[in-house]
Structure formats: C-alpha cells, structure tokens
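Researcher: If only I could read backbone structure tokens as easily as an amino acid sequence. Walk me, if you will, through where the backbone shape changes along the chain. I have put the entry right below:
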Amino acid sequence: MTTQVALVGGTGKLGTIIGAVIDDLDGFEVSRVLNSASDFSELDGADLVVDASTPQVSVEVVRAAVDRGINVLVATSGWSAERIALVRPLVEAAGTGVVFIPNFSLGSVLGSALAATAARFFGSAEIVEAHRDTKVDSPSGTAVRTAELIAQARTEQGPVSAPHADQRARGQQVGSIPIHSLRRPGVVAKQEVILSGPGESLSFVHDTTDPALAYAPGIRLSVPFALNAQGVVVGLENMIDIGVSS
C-alpha cells in the first residue's frame, strides 16, 4: 500500500527538493501539492503531511493536520522551542505525531551536536549564520536549534558569557547565545559556532553548497520516521546515533 503524502509549499525551493525525494522513496507518493491559495480540506485523506511552507502559515498547517489526525513532518523554519511548546498539547491530545526538522543536512546536525558538546568547556559561545537574501526569517531555524542544544548541554555550567547583550549589534540571544544573521546574495546556507575561552577559541563551520544533495539523505530518513512518530520530536539527531536527542 502506497503512503499518500500531502506536500504543503511543494512549489518552493525546499518543497521541490522534498517532493523529488519522496517520489523516489519506495511506498511513498506525493498525491497532492498545496500552496498559499489552497484550502486545508485538500489534506483530507492524506496519510502524512509534509510542511515546507512559510513561518506564518506553518502553524496553521500543523493545526489543520493534527485536527484531522494526520502526522506531520515540518521542514519550515522559524519553530523555536517556545513556539513548539504552544502546539505540543494539541499533538498529545490528538494522539498524533509532529516531527520538526530545522535542517535536513547530516553535516549540519553533526556540527550542531559537536558544538553543543564542546560548549560545556568554554565560557563564550556565539553563532554566525548566513543565508540567501530571499530567506524571510532570521535567525535561521538551524541557528536557533543549535543555540537551544548548547543551552541544554550547559545546564550545569549555566549561561554563556555575552557582554553588552543589550546592544542590538550584539545579535539576538537564544538561550543566552548571541546569534548574528547575514542575508546576502550568492549564499546557500552557512553556519559557524565560535567557542572561546582563556587564550583559545574553537570553531565549527558547516557550509551547504548544494541543497538537493545535502538534504536528500535527511529527507529519506525523516519521511518514514514521521509517518510512525508519536508526540513531538525535534531534530534529525533523533534518527541517527550521535548522542543528542530531544
């Protein structure tokens, strides 16, 4: 039996990549593609909803799918821990599963996990992320997730040192970690986590050069996982054994 997938935002850059990967997966088929003008009634009958829409629309997609008892794979950026907490009760009450993937790149997930592990040994941590100038949200979902992981890893050590955090030029703080966002042409996606201590620094850099190639392995892992997920799951790290889960 073929799993019928409703793909929201399927005509966008990420949605197009996701759709192509799903159509190559055994037992899965994109049976309907929704855009900003679509009615959520088009989700009826789907076995899984994949959301690659916009931060403004994404929460409504999740609610519409959960109301119909359909699991959701969320690829849309902009879902912080606080925002996810708002929909968690709905998901649990419905007995469905919603999987949030800030970044499908295995390299990005590994880089964030390694940075979070190392951050326990450094007093300062900052993130610089760059995306193309058409990206509508900042900081990126990947940067927010990385900062959240660093904060979780530093539960015993406490917040990082972030002097002059009241100044706007110092970036937006997430879990005490300043995030600096660059939006410029010619960039796909790049993130650097800079850890600093007395007399030294350590950096973790991940650079996406071809999204279709970089995201495909993570998409192939995430789609079957999301179909059978229960409750709220955040991050591709839950599907690979790197010692970090949520």
The first strand starts at residue 3 and ends at 8. The first helix runs from residue 13 to 24. The radius of gyration is 18 Å. The mean pLDDT is 95.
